[in-house]
Every structure is written in C-alpha cells, then in structure tokens.
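To the structural biology subgroup,

Please find below the input and predicted structure for TatD family hydrolase, which we are adding to the shared reference set this quarter. The sequence is reproduced verbatim from the submission form. If anyone notices a discrepancy with their own records, reply to this email rather than editing the shared folder directly, so we keep one authoritative version.
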Amino acid sequence: MTDKPIDYALIDTHTHFDDFVFDEDRLSLATAAYGSGLRHLLLIGYLAKYFERMRQTQQQLSSYSHNIQANKAAVPKVYLASGLHPAYIFEHTEADLDCLAQFLQRHPHVAIGEIGLDTFSDELKTDESLKKQKRFFSAQLDLAVEHQLPVLLHIRKAHAECLALLKQHSYKATELGGIAHSFSGGEQEAKAFVKLGFKLGVTGQITNTNAKKLRRAITAVVEEFGLQSLVLETDCPDMTPVCCQQGSTPTRNVPGNLGFVLQGLSELLHVDKATLAQQLWQNSCEALKVDWPYPA
Ligand SMILES: [Zn+2]
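Predicted structure (tokenized):
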C-alpha cells in the first residue's frame, strides 16, 4: 500500500469555477480541492453577463462553508476578481464598463481581471480590435487605480504593447500588486513583467515537457529574481495538467488539480514542494495585497 502523498496549502489565483461545466458537481469538487490542500480560490471575470454568476458561485460556496458542521467537509474560500477579457472585445459595450464599475462598488473584490491585450487570432489582430482592446484595458487600469486593486493580466502575443500601455498609466504593480496570468511570453518578456512588479501565473502547462519556451522563461526568471516571482493557478476548466488528461479529447480541469502544477514546478526548479508551497502562498498574498496566514 502506498502512503497518501502529503498535500500542501495552496491558493488558486485564477479559476473560472463559476463556469456552467461545474454546475452539476461544484460542491463535491470544492470539498475534494480543500481535501487536497486548496484554501483560497479566485473567480475571474471575462464577460459582464457572467458577473452575477460569479457572485452566486461565491455565495453557494460560502454558505456551504458556514454549515461545515452539517456538511462535514470544508471548501476553499472564494474571492471575486471581475473584469472584461480582451479576447471577447467585440462583445463588450460601454455599458459593460459601467456594469463593472458598479459591480466593483457593490461587492468586495480582491482584484480586477482578466484584462489586457490579445492578438492571437486574425480577428483580434485588426486595427479596430486593437484600438478597442487598448481603450478597454486603459479604462480598467484606471478603475484599478481608483479602487486600489491589483490587476490580473491576460496577454497573448501582445506583451510589448501591453508593457507600453502599463508604462503610460499610473497603475504601479510595485504598489498595487498584480499577476501576468498563464504567462506565455519569452524570457525577456517574463523578466520585464517581474521588473514592473508583477508575479507570473504558472498553469498546468508547466507539466508539459514540450512547452520549452515557457519552461525556459520561468527558469530564467527564478534564476534572476528568485522564487518570489511566481504564483500558481489552474485556469480551470482550461489548462489541464498533462498527467490529468485522458486521450485526445480535452479534459475538464478542476481546482483540485493545483497540486499537480506544484509538482510540475517543483520538478522543473528542483525545489522541494514544502518550500515551494510556502513561498508561493506568500507570493500570492503579495500579488493580491492580502494577508492570509499560511495554515499550520
Ligand atoms: Zn482565465
């Protein structure tokens, strides 16, 4: 019989756990995630029409927590980070920006996200798209400054433009924190974001030994800036760690898989999981400007 592996306390800095694909079994997934060490998770916004769904998910899980005695199992604490995602730029309207501003006023948030620039597809690359993306990104950076909240960045094939825009703004990651989520840039870009004060979000992609550019960028950042430049995320239901994939059909990622991301990072960096978990917890708190004590 093999011993149960030791689980470490973790924070999932980026999930879409409010997604409808979790509607059937969200509570059992949440208790399983808690059982595997997950203590806090963030719900990340992308379209204004789902902000309310995020809040309902937060309520569903926190009311479950309040009844631990009856429910006999705990779930991670859930926090909101609403925002308008750049890849959905053609769906966003001015009214959605107002909606975000109101939502931020009405409900406690730990961050604004996910926001940024994305020129991955031909459609997103057009002048019209990029102009609108920059306008929405700027408006949301202003909201972050107004509310003194960190931003969670989504950047795909637009790292230089994103850095330029950040530099034009009064948003200072060294003061407000922030995460470059699911980091996908190269070594130099990784270093540039860390220099600005951002942490890099590491997903299950790190477990993919073919993701050479990513693995090199993360290793290089740690060599230059140390372990304090990283945080973990599942980005569930996407970014399933390699070990959890089944065949060629995409497998739904879940918050309980975060331990596999820790494992992958531990192997890449040759740092033991206990040391890494504690450091990553501290990094997450620093990126979100919160003071969550590391569970004993
Ligand atoms: Zn996301």
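Summary notes: The CA atoms of residues 20 and 53 lie 9 Å apart. The first strand starts at residue 10 and ends at 15.

Regards,
Lab coordination
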